[in-house]
Each structure stands twice: as structure tokens, then as C-alpha cells.
Input
Amino acid sequence: MKIKTDYVILAVLLLLLVGATLLWRRPLHGQPRDHSVWRTNREGYRALYALAQRLRLPVSDLRRPWTDLPRDAGMLCLIDPTHLPLRDEVNALLEWVRAGHILLLTPQIVSPDEPLWGPLGEDYAVDLFEKLDLSLTHVGPKVSKTRMRPSSELAAGVRQIRLLHNTRLERHGAAFEVLARDESGPAIVALQKGRGLIYVLTDPDLLSNVGLRYDDNAILGVNLLWQGAQHGRVYFDEYHHGFREAHSRWAALGATPPGRALWPLLAAVAIYLFGRIWRFGAPITLQRTQHRSALEHVQAFAHVYQSAGAGQAALGLILDGFRRRLARRVGANPGRPLAELADIAESRDPHAAGLRDVVAGAHRAAALPDLEERELLHWARRLAYYEQEGS
Output
């Protein structure tokens, strides 16, 4: 009953904590979309990251600012950042590109009736997109299909791609090469910066978990990462998605619904274990009962029977009790003769060596008409000794 009560208490604690989590969770509206490689929802890039790993492309996540890019980095994928970069980060990034590296860049998509970059993307647009002389505009329907320019290296195996958003690039002074466009305008372009290259995808969902399902979007994503892998390791920027080097992947887990459900469970278990180990008072020393020796009992028993002139009956009772206990120990029928049980005990237990002779001697003594107390006590002690050794 105690165990069932503990389970009930643990279940109630878990339900209370899960309920509190549901009541206090942040509302979904107003939260920025997150295209992190650790997200498995529609907007996440987990599928592309896992596909690259399966193809053994050198990919990693970047959890440091752009002023401290790794030396082995050949390509940086900046997918819809949700945290503002600093101005010196943008300058360091562009210098890194001019040195001969590749940048894959996508904008943040917001609804047309809001400011195009919103509160999270305003400085990002000014510092990076305006430095690239690029501007974005909303056009036509959201979903459209288009083809890659055949001469592009990214077009290998790509017959058709599907765009999921209606954001396109406008020519604002930058000289770029259009790699894919529809009737609404350029959707994928390439900009030459020094010895480096910048690919701009106007649709961040083009290579997301949901976007890879359509047409040849997955092939386009692999072509992009493969080209970056020719220059070094491909890094996905996670620093501007909120993941820092000081954080572990538990931070990514905690931002997902399964991760948020895990914390109440751990809290309930911790409270339950804390309650189980709580001590209400000082420890009590265990009192051990002192048992008398079996030999002492035998001696008193023999003295009483000898005083009554029933030494033979006493030894017979001792032999009968010894037979039952010995049969139970060796796993035999208690109705078998004591001599047979002694043979079985000697064959199994090294401590029972000589038991057959002791049993035979005790039987001969029990047949004597004038059994003395000293003789009775001798055989009783011999039997008790074997019983103690075998226990």
C-alpha cells in the first residue's frame, strides 16, 4: 500500500508541473521563426544538416561571433538569423568573404503588412544587405516553381525548384548573377566579393525541413554545400540563433516541446527522491538480539530428561529432530532413514565428513538401557556441532 501511495504522489506532482508548464508557456504569436539546424519543425534546417552528414560532407554548427571564425571554415550558412549581429561582426564577415570564402545568405521573412525586417532584423538589414547594395520586395503569390540557370554549377541534377515565399530581390546597384528567377523577380543570385562569393536565397524555407520535400530543392541544397566543402568546412551559423559555445545541446533540446516536457518530469522525480530521503529525527541504532548457543540448549535438554530417567527417549527425540532438519537441508524426503540422509550430506557437504559414523554411534547409544547423562550430552553435542557447521 505504501508503494502505491508513493506512485500516486509522484503522478500528482508530475501532472501539476506539466500543467504549470502549459499555463506559463510563451504564446506562439509574436515569436520569431527559427531556421536553426537543431530545429525539427517546419522551418528548421535539421534535415539538410543530417543529409550533409550522411553524405559525409564536412559540416558543423558555429557558436561563436563572426569576428572569431574558424580557420578551417570554407563556407558559412547564415539562415534567417534571429539575433542581431554587431557592426564589427558584419565588417569581419565581409572581409572573410573577400579573402576567398563563400557565404550562403537568406533574409528574414515577415508578412507584407509589417516592416520588412521587423525589430529583430532592422540592424541586420542595414549593416549587411545595404552594404551589399541589395533590397527586398514582396511580390505575387507565395508558392511558385522555377528552374535554375543551366550554366550554373548549382544546377547539376536540378530540373525544378519550388519557392514557398513571395520575397524577391530588386536591383539596387549591386551587380549580381541571377541563378534562378520566376515571373516576380530574382530568387537566387550570386555576388562576387573580392576572391569570395555570396549566394543569396530570398526564400529561407527553400532548404528547410518542409522545403526539401518539394521538387529538386534537396539536390540544390546538396550542390550548395558540396561547393562550399571544396573550400573547407561548411559551418551553419547558430550563434545568431541563440546558441553559444557555453551552451550545450541541452539548450536546443530545452527549446523544443519534448525538451520542455522533460523538465517537469525531472523536477517531479527530484522532489519525490528528496521526500524519500528526508529524515525526521536522529538515526536510531539497530538493536541486535543476542541468541543463545544451540549447544547450551542441548545441555539443558539432556539434563532434564536424564533427571527424569528418560535418557533413551531424549536421544531418540534429538535424533528424530536432527533427521527432519537434515532432510530439509539436503532436499530429501524426511521419511528416509537417518543413515541414508547422512550419506547424502557427506557426498554434498565437506563439513559433513564423518556424519555417518556419528549417526551410527548415536543410534547405538540410544539402544542402551542405562544411558548416562554424560553419554547423552556427548552425542547431542556431536549432532549439534554438525548442524552448526552445515548452516
